[in-house]
Write a structure and sequence with these properties.
This protein is of the alpha+beta class and 429 residues long. The protein has a single domain, classed as Anthranilate synthase (4-Layer Sandwich). The chain contains ten helices and 21 strands. Strands 1, 2, 6, 7, 8, 9, 10, 11, 17, 20 and 21 form an eleven-stranded antiparallel beta sheet that branches. The longest helix is centred in the middle third of the chain and has 19 residues. The chain starts with 8 loop residues before the first helix and ends with a helix.
């Protein structure tokens, strides 16, 4: 069989949308770096799973149990998102906000399209009737991208937490830390606006990825009115077919500068920051503990502790924690043990979630949750949904957050929140 022709990911996503519609369109993106070498696109799921609501809500169901059942049904690719508030099914309580979006949305795909962004090669992964459909589509003329350049009818962003309120919340977290209630907390805020008319999610995502390329970004559409667009730089959990698990928590951020000298100074200042290093190490300890619940005794290692990683918009401090799962097939158990991710909650995790929900005005939803991909061989990958847009009906929402410790400065944390979120807002303007 002749090799399939190369398609640019955006053109491929547009062709899949034309053929299968918005519902179930998935694009796990990359930036062409070593960690972001591959992209995966899929559409037309053979099955969809959805969980909404909180425990005790009428009709609500446990998203982790739903995932376990889905993964056990046989081969194929499962792609979807899991929301932050899914944690309510692990630690029930009155403090959880009720999310407007699905706690779990996942689609089952017989075949996905994998793109090697470095080698510019394309392959179909999987078997089933859809394979011949996709082969025929890939041999057709590639579509125009005019629709992805359409004007986006956005007006003005409304912050649900003002800068002044965020500063006061930072001070409140510091007081909880001083009292010994918390050690560290990832405090978030969000802005939203109403769309003035219909918007193609691909047009939005094209702008995001052009401004903020990332190794673990992407787009997922449960339907025309509900989806997540992400430019995340952070991997959550990656699992090999043999059960080797890796997590890459990020803590510590500085903006990039066009001037090489200023940029180098920013990176050096981050690496030397005692506050940021302590914050990162704290989350490493938390993730070691979470993985220790489901990994073999003595298998937990930290091959990278507080390493510098640089992206187009920011510098980050990233650590790597690995372990060997007791049961490589129990991916839902792994998620339950580690949910939500330590880098976007704090320590101790459950108490931090309780206190943060008292400060934050709305549910995070998929933000601080995860995109995931379970492959037919049992391997698994997922991200942390930061640097993301949430689409629900006519509302588009963006969140941002900062890690707060005992010596955090409210003014500086508010400033950091701004330059984390501004690249996303600029991309849409």
């Amino acid at each position: 069989m002749n090799p399939l022709p190369w398609w640019e990911p955006l053109q491929l996503a547009a062709a899949l949308q034309q053929r299968y519609g918005h519902q179930g369109l998935v694009w796990l993106d990359g930036d062409g770096s070593q960690r972001g070498r591959y992209a995966v696109l899929a559409a037309g799921p053979s099955e969809q799973v959805r969980c909404d609501g909180l425990p005790n809500d009428p009709g609500a169901s446990d998203p982790f149990a739903a995932l376990q059942q889905a993964f056990a049904r046989g081969p194929g690719h499962w792609l979807g998102w899991l929301s932050y508030e899914a944690a309510a099914w692990i630690e029930p309580g009155e403090h959880w906000h009720r999310p407007a979006m699905a706690q779990l949305w996942a689609g089952h795909y017989e075949v996905v399209i994998e793109l090697d962004l470095q080698q510019r090669q394309l392959q179909l992964r999987g078997e089933g009737p859809q394979r011949s459909e996709l082969e025929q589509l890939l041999l057709q003329p590639q579509p125009s991208l005019e629709s992805c350049d359409e004007a986006i009818p956005l007006t003005g962003w409304q912050w649900l937490t003002s800068n002044a309120d965020y500063g006061r919340q930072v001070q409140q977290v510091r007081e909880w830390i001083s009292a010994g209630d918390l050690f560290q907390a990832n405090l978030t805020a969000c802005a939203e606006q109403q769309l003035n008319g219909p918007v193609d999610p691909l047009a939005l995502y094209r702008r995001l990825r052009r401004q903020c390329p990332s190794p673990f970004g992407g787009l997922m559409l449960a339907n025309r009115d509900e989806g997540v667009l992400s430019t995340s730089p952070e991997r959550f959990l990656q699992v090999s077919a043999h059960g080797l698990v890796e997590t890459r928590p990020i803590k510590g951020t500085r903006p990039r500068h066009s001037d090489p000298s200023r940029d180098a100074d920013a990176a050096a200042e981050l690496v030397c920051s005692a506050k940021d290093r302590a914050e990162n190490v704290m989350i490493v300890d938390l993730m070691r503990n979470d993985l220790g619940r489901v990994c073999r005794s003595g298998s937990i290692e930290v091959p990278q502790l507080v390493g510098l990683e640089s992206y187009r918009q920011v510098h980050h401090l990233t650590s790597v924690v690995t372990g060997q799962l007791n049961d490589p097939s129990d991916l839902a158990g792994l998620l339950r043990a580690c949910w939500p991710g330590g880098s976007i909650t704090g320590a101790p995790k459950i108490r931090t979630c309780q206190q943060l929900n008292a400060l934050e005005p709305v549910a995070r939803g998929p933000y601080c949750g995860s995109f995931f991909h379970r492959r037919p061989d049992g391997s698994f990958d997922s991200n942390i949904l930061i640097r993301s847009l949430l689409l629900k009906g006519s509302t588009v929402r963006v969140h941002g957050g900062c890690g707060i410790v005992a010596d955090s400065d409210p003014a500086l944390e508010t400033e950091e929140l701004g330059w984390k979120v501004q690249p996303l807002l600029r991309a849409l303007s």
